[in-house]
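Quick start: read one record
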Amino acid sequence: MLPPSAVRVPDGEGAGVEMMALLFDRLAQQAVAVGQHGGILYANPSWLAAVGLPVEELPKGRIMDWVADTHARRWHRWLEHPDRLDPRAEVRLSWQTREGELRPVVGSLSALRQGLGPVSLLGIFQDNSRLLTMQATLREREAIHQLLANHAPVGVFQTDGAGRLLRANARWRRIAGLQHTDMPRGVWWQMVAEEDRPRVLAGWESFVRHGHEFVCEYRVNTGKAGVRFARTRIVQASQSQEQDLACVGVTEDITEQRRQEAERQEVEARLRQQQKLESIGNLASGVAHEINNPLMGIANYAELIKDETVETGAAGQYADEILRETGRIAYIVRNLLTFARQDTAEYGPTPVEEIIEETLALVRTIIKRDRVQLQVELPSSLPVIWCRSQQIQQVLMNLLTNGRDALNERYPGGSP
């Protein structure tokens, strides 16, 4: 603290300066008293340090020597009209140090009438540079956050604890169908389709009560613009008791992802079906080979019976019937083997009528079992085509079995 005797002031003003020294020398804030003509009557050590003066060196000259040029006019006005000063009003200005550096301060300024002449001004200030730096940093961070939000590939939004929108970037507005609104109002779940809203709101209410993270997928409220899907992820931005609850969320348009997932599942289902058909083909091939051996034995025994009996007798007729049925079975087995050898089949000339007949031989019994009547009308002029007959058989078999399934679904009572 500067002793009062060390402060050089005009004669007759010492008593007032001594009083201020007792009051303000130990004050952490900057205190400065200015006479009616702008001369510095008193300055405490904090003010001296702020302008770059050692505490042993007394300020000389007028206050204007230590005020930034941009604030000089304000000081002139205060000195000319001190009665207009409101001591409760906040004053912001900058001191200019001995080295020419500007030091921003904030404080108050009031007029004094006793002890220091007719009128003097007393200012109490504190350094504002740290606050201004923090404010500038906050503005810079806010600008960066806004830049990131504006260019993020997802929708970004902020709500209060009740879900009311506080801000939302352009991407979120576009996903929500509100791209023509600079700042949408209302709650964030206005973008959720009506049929999904109860489920989403139940999850949101649990999230508000218990915190953690809230993730939901839903259909977007697009009206008649078609079905779109979105995923929203929300976290609580403030959780202290002193602060109101605020939430930050991101929203992604997952319509294309859903479409690709459906296509993937469809491809996987087709692959599983193909693998199943391959397994059935291998099984059918093995069964057909197993059937062929006893079938040939039955046919041979039927031939022997026929040779040993009179053709017009009953035994001969039975033998003919056995040969006819074994021939039909052999025909079906041969077609089954051909159908099962899909990987080794080669291109070749094949009559269309033959392909149709071989396919019907495989599926006729299945269709007949479901009480479906199959009528076949083939023109006599069907051509011979160059193809893999098994692939054409597969197409025809799919058409026939799909038709059977459709009839069974429409007329379920027709099935046994």
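The CA atoms of residues 82 and 288 lie 116 Å apart.
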